[in-house]
């Protein structure tokens, strides 16, 4: 489909965006997108960086045609374009060199599209389309009605678009891979306004980039994602143990967890290790088990705890029979609204002339929160030096501290490294994330996390996960292009889509090679 703007272009960006067929909710310039309600229509769910976002216009698209017109106008007037779905970016799109962009919000495009036949009772071979703005909470509950799910993350308000474009890690990745490993096609409005469905055969390089290249560099706006769904776990078990975070515990438990749980040959077992301080510093392992041998999974967790120097557990919760939607609810403060029909959790209500920001359900829901993230993907070859765990054990567990480590191996580790832009494919891979979130200023903990990363990466390569985006990686001598794309960095850079992935010595060009515009 060709660019929807004809040769007689309207005279200004605003006129172009408001041409027939454009989104009714279109706001051009700060005078229009700043509101009296205490928020701006350009804002995201991260008060640390939201002020740096400086668009020319914010367009709230509810259908593909709105997206196509908005992107075409941006192209015509030489403006960069960024999609916005869940507003959960750790670093801002449309900031710095991106300022002046047109933000195309697709938060309200959250349909689940089923094929006209099939797709019942979790049978294999079902490909369904998910809108870019679909929240994970809505996705889990909607897909569960037909016995399906997707291998995605725990947080109910994260959206399909950003999660998928960066890779998509979650509970089921050992069994079924990353979310991108189930992606079969993406509907995209390219930067010149043309619409295309990209897959293995059509624009395969763009389909490749859509699988882990990341939302910040994706050259277009995605309007639908087509996934081959996986069967919903029928009777999952959850097992959880917590211990006081003594230094001995922090030094001994991680190696045992890694060797005996993260590297376990049964991909039905997913065990996450985390460290937190919300009043009391603690260490915990949460197991989600979706196989038959539940007793062994529970015994393994108890045995790992007993072999460590953690001492008696301070909390034990063993739930051998639960439901998949209960697992989802449990990870989101038990808030049943996350799956309520008609509720997409945390977005924009377009029923009035000015979009109204809606409340978020789950943990840490305030829009006033500051967020930042650091990450490390490690474990290549099935080995993590004890020095990593010792360095982590020295970290000061301040109030609000949260570090989690998830196995990102299993099936996700078996895919060829160059099959997708996401490169961290190894049977030993785990992903560590330092999550910083607070209603106050977080600059001091961001500083501390740089020191932590420096100490840890003295022992292992500086690799990270794109969706835990960190533009301040240089604070511990990390290089985003190599950290996020590893052995695929040159191939991603060849797509020439932005500074984040450019080699420091490269000229600062930002043209996508198929001539589809600039970003
Ligand atoms: C509380 C929390 C929990 C998280 N849990 C997980 C997890 O379990 N697993 C995991 O892998 N990640 C997780 N993440 C990271 C998450 O995947 C990223 O923050 C992701 O970018 C969020 O996507 P979004 O659509 O919600 O946010 P947005 O801010 O709307 O988008 C993120 C990026 O994608 C771009 N984008 C958005 N929509 C489109 C579109 N339609 N077309 C093209 N580009 C688009 C944006 O420009 C931006 O660069 C979590 C993040 C948070 C804040």
UniProtKB/TrEMBL annotation:
Cofactors required: FAD
Any one Gene Ontology molecular-function term assigned to this protein's record: FAD binding
Keywords on record: FAD, Flavoprotein, Oxidoreductase
Pfam families associated with the record: FAD_binding_4 (PF01565)
Limits of the FAD-binding PCMH-type domain: 51-232
Entry's family note: Belongs to the oxygen-dependent FAD-linked oxidoreductase family.
Domain of life of the source: Eukaryota
Lineage: Eukaryota, Sar, Alveolata, Dinophyceae, Peridiniales
Name the UniProt record assigns to this protein: FAD-binding PCMH-type domain-containing protein
């Amino acid at each position: 489909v060709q660019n929807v703007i004809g040769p007689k272009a309207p005279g200004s960006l605003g006129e172009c965006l408001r041409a027939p067929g454009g989104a009714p909710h279109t706001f051009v310039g700060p005078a229009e997108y700043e509101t009296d309600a205490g928020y701006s229509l350009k804002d995201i769910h991260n008060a640390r960086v939201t002020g740096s976002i400086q668009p020319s216009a914010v367009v709230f698209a509810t259908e593909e045609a709105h997206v196509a017109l908005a992107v075409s106008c941006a192209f015509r007037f030489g403006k960069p374009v960024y999609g916005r779905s869940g507003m959960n970016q750790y670093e801002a799109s449309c900031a710095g060199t991106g300022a002046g962009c047109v933000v195309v919000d697709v938060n309200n495009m959250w349909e689940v599209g089923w094929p006209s036949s099939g797709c019942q009772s979790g049978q294999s071979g079902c490909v369904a389309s998910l809108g870019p703005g679909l929240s994970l909470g809505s996705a889990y509950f909607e897909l569960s009605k037909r016995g399906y799910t997707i291998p995605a993350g725990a947080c109910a308000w994260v959206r399909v678009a950003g999660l998928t474009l960066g890779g998509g890690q979650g509970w089921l990745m050992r069994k079924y891979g990353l979310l991108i490993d189930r992606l079969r096609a993406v509907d995209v409005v390219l930067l010149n306004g043309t619409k295309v469905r990209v897959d293995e055969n059509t624009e395969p390089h763009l389909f490749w980039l859509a699988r882990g290249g990341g939302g910040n560099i994706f050259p277009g706006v995605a309007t639908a994602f087509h996934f081959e769904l996986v069967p919903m776990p029928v009777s999952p078990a959850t097992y959880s143990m917590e211990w006081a975070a003594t230094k001995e515990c922090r030094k001994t438990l991680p190696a045992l967890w890694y060797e005996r749980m993260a590297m376990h040959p049964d991909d039905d077992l997913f065990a996450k290790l985390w460290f937190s301080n919300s009043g009391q510093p603690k260490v915990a392992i949460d197991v989600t088990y979706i196989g038959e041998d539940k007793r062994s999974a529970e015994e393994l967790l108890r045995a790992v705890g007993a072999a460590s120097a953690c001492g008696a557990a301070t909390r034990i919760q063993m739930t051998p029979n639960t439901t998949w939607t209960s697992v989802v609810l449990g990870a989101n403060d038990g808030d049943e609204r996350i799956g309520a029909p008609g509720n997409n959790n945390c977005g924009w209500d377009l029923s009035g002339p000015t979009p109204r920001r809606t409340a978020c359900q789950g943990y840490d829901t305030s829009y006033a929160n500051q967020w930042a993230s650091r990450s490390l993907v490690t474990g290549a070859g099935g080995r993590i030096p004890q020095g990593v765990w010792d360095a982590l054990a020295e970290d000061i567990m301040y109030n609000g501290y949260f570090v989690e480590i998830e196995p990102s191996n299993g099936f996700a580790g078996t895919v060829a490294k160059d099959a997708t832009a996401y490169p961290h494919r190894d049977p030993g891979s785990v992903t560590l994330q330092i999550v910083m979130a607070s209603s106050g200023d977080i600059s001091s903990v961001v500083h501390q996390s740089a020191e932590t990363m420096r100490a840890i990466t003295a022992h292992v390569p500086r690799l990270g996960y794109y969706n835990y985006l960190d533009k301040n990686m240089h604070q511990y001598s990390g290089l985003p292009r190599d950290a996020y794309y590893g052995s695929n960095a040159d191939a991603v850079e060849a797509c020439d889509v932005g500074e984040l992935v450019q080699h420091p010595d490269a000229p600062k060009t930002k043209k996508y090679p198929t001539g589809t515009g600039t970003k």
